[in-house]
Amino acid sequence: MPGFYGRYEVTLDGKGRFLLPARLKKHMIGAQEEAVLILNWGDDGCVNLYTEADWNAEVDKLRRVDEDESEEKRRFKRHYLGGAFPVELDSAGRISIPKYLLQHGALVKDMILNGNDNRVEIWDLERFNKFFDGFSHSDFTAMKAGMLGKKQEG
């Protein structure tokens, strides 16, 4: 299955819920009535949303980490797995975000759902825009060339 891509603007309500856009809902849960999605800490101050299958692939990667190797690895694994929060869409198609993840993402009202391959990143709109401040078209072109092997345009 292709990964997640695209950006969707959503609004968080006063109870920490947002409506999952129809296109994402179809891609993430299909026709399933009670599919479980997983919320967790994201990099750079976002919150990640995984399908159950993609989350299980993340857990499989962690199982390959030798816990006895270092305290740092054990600490990371505890924090990462402990932060995972399973959610189901309510009858209106909304997802509730727990308080600790709302705080991690500084999520208050206006948000961006940003597709990033095996997960959807949930960003505070202002934080997302600040993250990309100064990221120019030439920066993008150079990074694309380096990552995808495309010739840079002059």
What is the topological layout?
Blueprint (H helix, E strand, L loop, with lengths): L6 E5 L5 E3 L2 H8 L7 E5 L5 E5 H12 L7 H13 L1 E3 L6 E3 L2 H6 L5 E7 L2 E6 H7 L5 H12 L6
Describe what this molecule looks like in 3D.
Strand 7 (110-116) and strand 8 form a beta hairpin. Helix content is 38%, strand content 24%. A six-stranded antiparallel β-sheet has the order 1-7-8-4-3-5. A two-stranded antiparallel sheet has the order 2-6. The mean pLDDT is 90. It has six helices and eight strands. The protein is an alpha+beta fold. It has helices at 22-29, 52-63, 71-83, 99-104, 125-131, 137-148, and strands at residues 7-11, 17-19, 37-41, 47-51, 85-87, 94-96, 110-116, 119-124.
Unreliable sequence segments? none
| DSSP summary: helix tally | 6
* Sheet of most strands: 6 strands, antiparallel
Element pattern in H and E: EEHEEHHEEHEEHH
Global outline: globular
CA-atom Rg in angstroms: 17 Å
* Mean pLDDT across residues: 90
| Order of strands across the main sheet | 1-7-8-4-3-5
Fraction of helical residues? 25-40%
Beginning-to-end CA distance, first to last residue: 35 Å
User: What percent of residues are in strands?
Assistant: 15-25%
**Number of beta-strand segments:** 8
Structural class of the helices, strands and pairings? alpha+beta
Task: Quickly describe the structure.
It contains six helices and eight strands. It is of the alpha+beta class.
